[in-house]
Structure formats: structure tokens, C-alpha cells
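pinned: reference chain
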Amino acid sequence: MAKTRVVYVCSECGYESPKWAGKCPDCNSWNTISEEAQIAAKVVISAKKADSVFNKNLEKSVRITQVDSQGEHRTKSGIAELDRVLGGGIVKGSLVLVSGEPGIGKSTILLQMCAILSKKMNILYITGEESPRQIRMRAERLGALSENLFIKSETNMGDITECIFAEKPDLVVIDSIQTMQRDDISSSPGSVTQVRECTGEFMRIAKGQEIPIILVGHVNKEGSIAGPKVMEHMVDTVLYFEGERSMDCRILRAVKNRFGSTNEIGVFEMTQKGLEEVKNPSLLFLQGKPQNTSGISTVCVMEGSRPLVAEVQALVTKTAFPAPRRVSAGFDYNRLCLLLAVLEKRCGLFYGTSDAYLNVIGGLRLDEPAADLSVATALASGLKDFIIPDDTVLIGEVGLAGEVRAVSGIEKRLIEIEKLGFKKCIIPQKNKIINTKSSLEIVGINMLKEIFNVL
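pinned: its C-alpha cells
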């Protein structure tokens, strides 16, 4: 008889422990370890049975030079921004995870994609959260009704597997993986064990039948539901939806992609008709930019092969408390503290009695070091209350010695800046050596303190 044992599993990373702990020793998350019951079945193989197993004709290993070297077969999703993030389209037999907070637009974009692809292939949409009537109501609102789109409301893995093998669709969408469950596992749906085992089952189906499968995974900040981090090592592609639900802008980012780059992003705008592609994201991020205001700067960063122009806002004000506050939205907090230290040491600016608030408009997150010069200048402008010209863009990485270091892709950045009507660009002096045909006024600087002389 199978024995039941109790283990404690972290809902964030899947770490298993025989004892409960308040903090996960693997991912350092607090209050994410919960109790789960696992069934350990003993497998006894007799000598006669083992002999038959080992004598069975198994698939032999092959030389790497004999493996078919033809490129993967891709299918265009019909949504250019989604194809950009996927690396050119959906790969046959791939397992894709689309994750994000509830209500951010995961099901919406997948239903729009299904409506486009259903014109040339059969698609099976399996939902464990909504009824077929609810899916139809959303499809009518999005204009996504199609005869080749099949809906099934089911959470049992056995029934889902039978349905896939019986209908043999060209694409399967699972919404969401947190609702799927296997009968042979005693834990509840959404637990780490259920999520991990169900994902493994879908992976075997995708690879064995060469059917692309897209999984939807929710992210819960409280950690009560297993997040997609448990599945990241199992799937081929991980896509994250970023942005605030209260804002119209949505950013789709690839954090793992075995068939393409992880540097690309897709920008969408939430409308009444669903998610619409943003052809020129820079215009969206620059909408409503205040004029003749201190603490406002403009930067051009590279997101994969695409240059994006974003607005950076800094507010520096006197503090009423002994310890000044440092708040950052869309920019690394530690990087903000580093730039404040450089401004104090190398430029003679004093922030010890002032609160510093930094915000990147549009929900965009600036991870590239090329944004350092723009952020540092905005912080200096907020402290000294001088105005950075509205037609000026600042690009450059700032080192601890106060030097402005060169960045990559400067030609693409300058072309994008010129298209948007900017007149002046301040860049590292080493990047100015590059010969460009831009009509911009390009100013090169070596040190951060030179910025006060060129503005």
C-alpha cells in the first residue's frame, strides 16, 4: 500500500523540507512554506520483469552530426508585437508560459491570437476558471468568434489529455495552469506539486505530439498560489506581462526563450476592443510631458533591437525627518542611491537633508546603464531647480569616478531621437567618434560634472 508522507514546500521556488520554516532557505521568501501530503509508492520489479524491461528494444542514442539540422517551424501569431517577443512566431512543439498579475490582459491577448490563428488551424482553448458562455461573451466583445476555435471547461488532467489526443488540435491554450489537477496527487489545485506535475504532463504532450501549448500562470504577491517561477525551468519560453492594471499601457517581456532573444519587448495599449499594438512606443511614453519644469529629463534606451525614448521625473525636496527618503519607481533603488552618492562626491551636490523621488513614466522599467546620465541630471535639476531643455536627450553610463562611459547601439538611438523631433543629444565623448549622418546637435562629455556647462 502506498505510504503518505508530509513535506513542506515553498510556493515560490518549490523547495522541499521535512520541517516548517518561516523563511525559505532557497529563495529567502517569508511565509511561503506550506504543508503538503505526498504519496510515496513502492515499485517492486521482479527479476523476470526486469529482464524483459532491459531486453526491450529501446531507442538508441545518435551522433550529433546525424541529427536533423533544419530550423524550427514557426507560425506567425498575427500580432506583430507578440511575434517580436517570441522571436518570430510560435514554434511547433514548444511549451510557452504567459504570466502576470490577475486582470492584466493575459487571457485577452491569447483569445485575440486564437481568433487570428483559427482562420488557418484548429485551436483548443481549455479553461479552468470560466465557463464556455463567459469565453463566448469575451470573444464577442473582442470580435474573436470562429468556427475553428473549440472551447472546453475542464480541470482534470486525465480528461484534458484524452481530449487533446482525440481532437489533435494545432494549438492548445491552458487558462490557467493553477486550476489544473491530477487525481493521483492528493494536494489541492494551485499547489507546487500539482503545478509542477501538470506542467510536466503538458510538456510531454507538446514534445511527443509536436503540438504547441501555451500555459497561463497567475502571480500572487501573497504567495498563497504557486507562482510561475516553479515552472520556468520546465517550459521553453516565459513571457511576463508588466504594467499597472489602472493604466492602459502593457509591456510583454520575454525572460526566457529557447528559440529567440530575451531582450525584446512588446508594447500594447488596453482598449475596449482588447489589447492593441503600439507601433511607436516612444510617442506613448512621452504623452503629456510637462514643459519648462525642473527635474524632467529624456532618455533613449535599447530594448533588444528597438530604441525607446522615455521620460524620467525626479523630485527633490527638504525632509522633515532625520533620515531622508529614497523612492524609486521604474528604476533600480540601489542604482539610485549610487548615483546620489556620485553626485555628492564628484559634483558637490548635497542630498543629506532632502528626500529624493524618482519615477519613470508609462510603467516602463529602465534596466540599462545608459539611463544613468539622464537620471543623474534629473536629480541634479530637482535639487538646484534648473530646467533641462525639452528638446534634449541624455544618454550615458555613469561610473563611480563620475566618468560618463560609452554605450552600445548609439546610431539606432540617434535615428529614433531625430524621428521624434528632438534637436540636441548629450552622449559620452567616446560615442561621438562614430560617424553618423544625423542632423542632431550632438554634444560629447567625459565627466558628469560637465553636464552643468552644456545645458
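why pinned: Residues 76 and 89 are 5 Å apart (CA to CA). The first helix runs from residue 47 to 54.
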